Amino acid sequence: MLHIILDTDPGGDDVFALLWLLSLVKQHVAKLIAVTTTAGNVTAEQTFANASRILKLTDSTNTEVGRGVLKAPGSEDAAHIHGTDGMGGLAATLPLPDHDYATARGSDDILIDRLSAAPGEITIVAIGPLTNLAAAEAKRPGILKLAKEIVIMGGAFYSRGNVTPQAEFNIWFHPEAAQVVLNSRSDSVIIPLDVTKHLIFTREMVLRVNRQGRTAAIPQLLTQLCEFMISTALQYRETNGIPGFLVHDAATLGYLFYPETLRLQRANVKVETQGEWTRGQTLIDDRPTAKSNANSWVAREVDTVKFFTHLIQDLYLIC
């Protein structure tokens, strides 16, 4: 059983990833230690509330939720894509959150406490900007080495970015934090846009999840959120006209629980933090001499059929 801290900024595709993870918890193949929220897709307070609402919806309120470490202003959020509430206006249809933002512990403190208490046992799944992880490392140098593994959704190497031509949103939002995390250990796993651009979740897939036409809260949320995400994906031409949306963040769970779906390569990854036009760009040093200094594993290929087979089956079990 994998013990997981999910670092997230829900966010439409984050919600799909969180529900997939909660399904795996229900199947007793994962244990959710905590959800550490961060600013990114929307504000830190909103991502905290969204995570808490999803946990309440799935009767998982015993899971601690951390409030995001605030960064200096500089990068705009993605509310224009995800809606001001991060969920296309659907947050208000969910149960009120049980967790209190004002009194919640900081996400960095949760990371430090949990990793210190169980060194080598907890996997961090980071599907938002890496602000919290970098803050924990700054406060307690070496703390990220105590994670069993760090799996990151972020970056774009051989594909165009999704916030600038060069940069993927999670890294662009706080590139300095990303570089701190990559410098903290030599085996971080990165799932970039190169892979996730192939993961188009369609209406047909959500119908397979809800194939009995159930009207309970979770299948209805999935159906409505799917429709909203499809509309924005088509508006921003993310899927080449295919009526679907990209489940970027869910790819991290595909790697962890169904590793046969992805092929990885060893790489030395750097983040551009200074460039006026290239800030947030992720780079692989492909020179033969660079492999001795590799700091990451980078996903290069994905088996989309196997990936979606697992995702759909698992989401069906939580609906």
3D structure, described in words:
The protein has 319 residues and is of the alpha/beta class. It contains twelve helices and twelve strands. The chain has helices spanning 12-26, 44-57, 79-82, 107-117, 131-139, 169-173, 175-183, 193-196, 203-209, 217-235, 251-257, 304-318, and strands spanning 2-8, 30-37, 64-66, 122-126, 149-153, 188-191, 200-202, 244-246, 262-267, 269-271, 282-284, 296-302.
**Count of helical regions:** 12
Helix content: 25-40%
**Backbone shape:** globular
Distance between the termini: 22 Å
How do the strands line up in the largest sheet?
3-2-1-4-5-6-12-9
Number of strands: 12
Give the overall pLDDT as a whole number. Answer: 94
The assigned structural class equals alpha/beta
Identify low-pLDDT runs: none
* Portion in beta strands: 15-25%
Largest sheet: 8 strands, mixed
Order of helices and strands: EHEHEHHEHEHHEHEHHEHEEEEH
- Give the C-alpha Rg: 18 Å
Question: What are the key terms here?
Answer:
two-stranded antiparallel sheet; 12 strands
Q: What is the topological layout?
A:
Blueprint: E1 2-8, H1 12-26, E2 30-37, H2 44-57, E3 64-66, H3 79-82, H4 107-117, E4 122-126, H5 131-139, E5 149-153, H6 169-173, H7 175-183, E6 188-191, H8 193-196, E7 200-202, H9 203-209, H10 217-235, E8 244-246, H11 251-257, E9 262-267, E10 269-271, E11 282-284, E12 296-302, H12 304-318
Parallel strand pairs: 1-2, 1-4, 2-3, 4-5, 5-6, 6-12
Antiparallel strand pairs: 7-8, 9-12, 10-11
Helix pairs in contact: 1-12, 4-5, 5-7, 9-10, 9-12
